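Box 3.1 A note on notation
Throughout this textbook, protein chains are presented in two layers. The first layer is the amino acid sequence; the second is a token string describing backbone geometry. Keep the layers aligned when reading.
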Amino acid sequence: MKFVILTGMSGAGKSTALKIMEDIGYFCVDNLPIALIEKFAELVNVSGGELQKAAVGVDIRSGQALDELQNVLDELNQTGIDFDILYLDSADEVLVKRYKETRRTHPLAAGERVDKGIQKERRRLEFLRKQADYIVDTSNMLTRELKAELEKIFVQNQDYKNLFVTIVSFGFKYGIPTDSDLVFDVRFLPNPYYVEGLRAKTGNDREIQDYVMQYSEAGQFLDKLEEMVKFLIPYYITEGKTALVISIGCTGGKHRSVTLANGLFERLKNQKEFGIKIDHRDIQKDALRNK
């Protein structure tokens, strides 16, 4: 028997997640009244019953009844019914942007700005976030990436890392990524852009990598950055942080930043404490501008 309570912030992708859960074989019910959750869990828990895997969506739409959910969770624990809490989250600025794009009103805004409703919602849901077995930050996730993460947890039964690290290469002339947590400037290194035959290539090409890494400063930078990130991450995990964006920038985001972002990714990709991905945000922008 597998019973999942799917919750989290409005706009973080719960509806999409429920559809994904259905696709992987879960019987899903959204916005079930709080008073019925225990009965539903008991139905799923019946040995040999039709329902062996179920997920129930619970969020701020439950209104004041949400305050009773803690009692329901306590009852489930006392009766020995196993359940997991999956909590979907996103950065405040991402949630605000999503609300503006869909022209929806936040359920707790009550005529105020969206960010005020988000703050109220965070306070109301904090007790669930603290108890969550899995916290998935969807700030930078595409639907297919969310699907892959949920399949890791509920299909492949892999150990899930609540902290997800994104390494971003970027060009300063296109602006610093707004969701950056840590920003590093590698414009102190010689620029391959001015070397004949290298301008059109990128940090994904061996010629650029060899050019950048021939300078001892590049290797020293990676050594110190790797050491600092490995030092910081356990503290971020303890704090409950779920997403860390490390941005590495050069002038155009094509050569030096890509090379060093790739280098950091290679050094961190086998760590077991966190998930990781890489994004070269501006790698093609020079080519598009020169057309």
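Residues 216-239 form the longest helix (24 residues). The chain has a mean pLDDT of 89.
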